[in-house]
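User: Hi! I'm a student and our assignment asks us to look at how structure tokens line up with a sequence. Could you show me two examples?

Assistant: Happy to help. In each example below, the sequence comes first and the structure tokens follow. Example one:
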Amino acid sequence: MDILCLILFLSVVALWFFTNEYGTLSGVYMPTCAMSGRGFNWLVFVILLASLWFSGAGAVEDTLLDCHLTSRLDCRSVMLMLLSSLIVLMVLKLFSVRGSVVYALLGSLAAYGLLLDGVFDFGWDFILSFVAAPAMAFLLSAAIRAVFKVVLSKVDVHMMKMSHYMRHAVILCIVLTPFALGMNWGGLMCGIGDMIMDAGTVGISVLAIVGLIMFMFMQFGREQGDEPSGPFADFSIYVVVAVGFSVAIVLMFFSFESSASVIGLSPVPLSVSSLVFAAIAGAETAQRSRLVDNMEYVREVTAFFAAPVCAFVLTYILFYIIGGESADHMTDFVVMTAATLILVALVFAGYVRMQRRSKEAVDRLVAAQQQQLYEHSRALGDMELKVVMSENQALHNAVEMKRQEVMNVALSIVEQKEYLESLSALVKKMSKTADEKERDRLLAEMDASLKQRISYDRDVDSQYFYAQAETLHEDFNAKLSENFPDLTQQEKRLATLLRLGFSSKYIATLMNITTKSVEIGRYRLRQKLGLSKGDNLVRFIKSI
């Protein structure tokens, strides 16, 4: 019966820690991506078991044994304390408060000692240690974060190099924290285990049961993924290192008599969650920025006080009702059965919780992929819409150009008709004039009118031609203006005509200038384009 009692006790402690409190420890380190989730779990597994092996006959165990003056705990008492602790922890969990199994068990032990007329004696140094531990974590974290802040402001180190250093610091914290946790909690489990049965098999039982439960936890939770999540996902790597070192140092400090006695305190088992949040509060104070929501601190403070107090009250009531030293075997059977059922329920709840987390991780991945597909499809739709709008604009421009051409042709026909009618009237007037001087005057007037008309038509045709050419070669004109902003409008027209391949003679006709003026314009254009004597002007213009 004693070995079953010991197995049940160790199973409850380990199972509650890995399904409820372990997430706080991993939640601090995982978002840094210093290690994969699987690598982190295996490293903690090895280091925790190694430190549990060295924690046997440690200072925490001696403190518990010194407080408990009797040498043995009967199985019914252990089951009642476990039952009370689990009930309190589950009720707190219903209100989203993660209580510590360590503090709940200590509250139950205190109630059991009180019922036995002061057999379990808590000294003030023992009680003050629980208050001093989070305060020390707060101060250490604030100091480490402040040192990082000062060093980063004065030392000129590249960001990538500093990130490399900090990543190694995180890995060091991952090594130290489970080692310190095993040294601290190993004393609790071995101490209570020694009260249940002979010390010879307690250490091996602790290693076997804790190792088995953590291995099951790793197997059930291996599909949860490595993506950062939870209340610590946005922590900077400097905060993580400050929190990690603080928690590890405090756990180690209160695991040895030589260190705790320096300030008049006792080695005590501590809650990892309370130390983590105290260290986070210290980092917040140092960097003057909010890291977690205030409600998280409220829940943690509630768990810090409610778990031991409620477990004390409930244990006292159950012992008072059932009786402390009764030999009723039926009562022992009922208590053992109830504790076993609660343990099974706890195992099932932990399994369901891990499966739910795994499903949530898959759902988050699917949602992220769907969001990415939606963004890609929307971007593709926007591109298609732009293409359609561009084509519609091109068609609209083409239709507008054709409409303008039809209007110009119609206006030209009307204007030519009116001009020809005026010439016809002038010819009739000349035919009826007998005076030779009057006829010469009319002929001179007709000649001037024809020359003016020829010049006007040439200018109108040139302007129309330039308008069409600039529309068709809009990109060329834009690049020419962007690369050579000093060019005049006349020089841009000359460049356009050269790009189209016209000779100097045709260019002179279109621009209504002489051939020599065209050659002078080409020379000036070469200078503004920065061409040397051997460069081909037309080839350069076509390459723009």
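Example two works the same way, sequence first and then tokens:
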Amino acid sequence: MARSRRPQVYRPERVDGSYDAIVIGSGMGGLSTAALLSRAGRRVLVLERHYAMGGFTHTFRRKPFEWDVGVHYVGEFHTEGTLPKLLIDDISDGSLAWAPMPENYDRIVFPDRSYDFWAGRERFVEGLSGDFPAARQTLQRYVEVVDSAYAAAMPYFQHKALPPILELPARPILRRKFLRYSGRTTLKALQAFTEDPRLIGVLAGQWPAYGLPPRQSSFGIHALVASHYLGGPAYPVGGASRIADSILPTIETSGGTVLVAGAVEQVLVRNGRAVGVRMAGGQEIPAPLIISDAGADTTFQSLLDDDTRGRLGWTEKLAELGPSTGHLCLYVGLAESAEKLGLQPTNLFIHPSYDHDRSVRTFATDPEAPLPLVYISFPSAKDPSWTERHGETATVEVISFAPYVWFERWEDRRWRKRGEDYEELKARFSERLLEALLEHVPETRGKVAFHELSTPLSTRHFANYRRGEIYGLRPTPERFRAAWLRPRTPIRGLYLTGQDVVAHGVVGALYAGLVTASAVLRRDVLKGVRQRAG
């Protein structure tokens, strides 16, 4: 499959003429918003501070290896008739190919045994019923409820796109059902199904996919993730960077542009209205619409002047919700192909205990305690085009979470210039993650040719999240109750998109693109998407 051409590097002279909108950030939310606006004939400029577009969908290389940084698998993008597939096909002209994950897509591992999650609702229930014979009806009810919560989320998302005059009266009707699910913690919701702490621990075993253990997370986000994968997930053929590559031509078709390595320093506001942006080098670019995919916290804390920020009150609201967790990722390169090593695409969620909250609390107070989780992903085993592109090599990602506060004292130092003590801390975490890989995937022993660790400071540096958070705002019940968290901001002409608007992750950010584009255009953008699909 031919790749689209890459975006250009920002230079002042490459800002060509006038634009209908400027999008800050090229993550899934920014690109999908830009593409949907382009479908409506708007000329959009996307400005990305990183040297690669795509946000958490981009990949990076250390020759001959390549890793994704956030797309480990997605659900529904390859499944006909689903809204995610309809949307991704529309903004990419159907140019993306997807490789289905194996039927056993996730393995939840505990010290005493492991449990497999199987694609298909009936197969999922059947598989776990073998581990919990008395819980078949409980599991069937659980699947029904997470699917109901997923369905209830759609009207909840839609209300965010409504203009203020319509949103207020429609709010109770469109939000009520989803809030019944999202207003409870995952633990409380699971305890309504079963009192078995082992079964609760297994069903909550995917909590790293949304970043909060069950006592803290909203059951709404748990249900969105669980239901999303039940039909069977997939991986983009050609790697995660193909997602952004495929959307770029749609933006360019209407005269739009994506420029990378171009950092926006400030959103320009005059008389309560956004009128453009100022680049780090001083260039001012005017536009009547500014759409930020930089995250709600970054937008209001870093991209607005002090006077504007102080008058809005959003910083206090955002502080109450709080940022999600930081993470560690060990990027591992292997000197043999996944096929020869026998590596399988199945993801591993490895937990030290069935009590996830206790594991997180213990580690947060003692960095020498067992890691609260280890997630292992095999991108080269998931991508059928890997060997053609990278030869007889393989890659693995080994992920855990870590509080930002452990790294805070180095935050003002430059990337790769943070000193020996920082490198020593990284080396200790690298060794622990590598030990977990060798223990649980012994096929990799003796085959590790390269490894490199990212920390929350890496996320801060590349993604511009102030606290190194990977999932934006914390997915708590309070976050989903926040009716003010919508695309429209108190500043006229300034909109938000991305995972803070709807929900985290690739699909959440894709939905945010739909919601934000609908809010900007003041019409049902999904209707146009369906019409184009025929």
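Here is something you could point out in your write-up. The longest strand covers residues 326-334.
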